[in-house]
Amino acid sequence: MLSDGDILALLGDGDVSDIGSEIDELEDDNCFPIDEFDQLLNDFDDLSSDIGPDIEEVEPDFINTNKRDIHWVQKPFEPPTINLEDIESEYIDTLKTPIQYFSEYFEDDIFVKIAFNTNLYATKKNLGSKFKLTDEHEIKTLIGIHMLMGCLKYSRVRMYWQKRFFVHLIADNMSRNRFFNLRTNFHVIDNNDIPPGNKDKFIKVRPLCDSFLRKCKSLPVEKNICVDEQMVPFKGKLCIKQYVKNKPIKWGIK
């Protein structure tokens, strides 16, 4: 058995570590030569000096100007010169009449259906001889009169047939009683076609809306488009009527 003195003799004085010596040897083996490292630094400096002069500083396209240095000058407006001949247009050069534009959005088949459903509704009400059956041409006249009334606004509808406010374009095409009779029985669809539990607020005029939207979607779309909405003044009884407090037109359809 070894005594304490023999163990201390084998360990030595304890100041030297075998592990530390092995790490030092590994570091010496993996150390990068100083001469080669200095040579790489010199080569890099030479390379950067060759590339440096060829690099050009990019100047910005805009100039920052202080607001205090801006002075506005009042002078006559000079419109820019634009050559419209070089611009390719997808539209037809010839202008159409208003009735031609209207016919593109609302085809004749729609007015035939409106006339049929109007006659059907009047028949279901058992009006008999009190209602004369209508056709698509008279329905077009009725719609045209409503559009004209929207442009020439009177406080009451009956005023368009009065002698003092007589409008020939309206009164010469349809009598007052016939106008009210058609407007009372006017129907775009058959009420029996409305499904139970319907939630479509426009179902009674859905064929008109679909025809209009179908034509709008077929129009060529330009690159730059600005879409805006407008409030149509209306204070009558309507489920889609809106009230906007902070608008000039507070009641209407939007």
UniProtKB/TrEMBL annotation:
Domain PiggyBac transposable element-derived protein: from-to ranges: 97-254
InterPro entries listed in its UniProt record: PGBD
Superkingdom assignment: Eukaryota
Protein's name according to its UniProt entry: PiggyBac transposable element-derived protein 3-like
Organism: Aphis craccivora
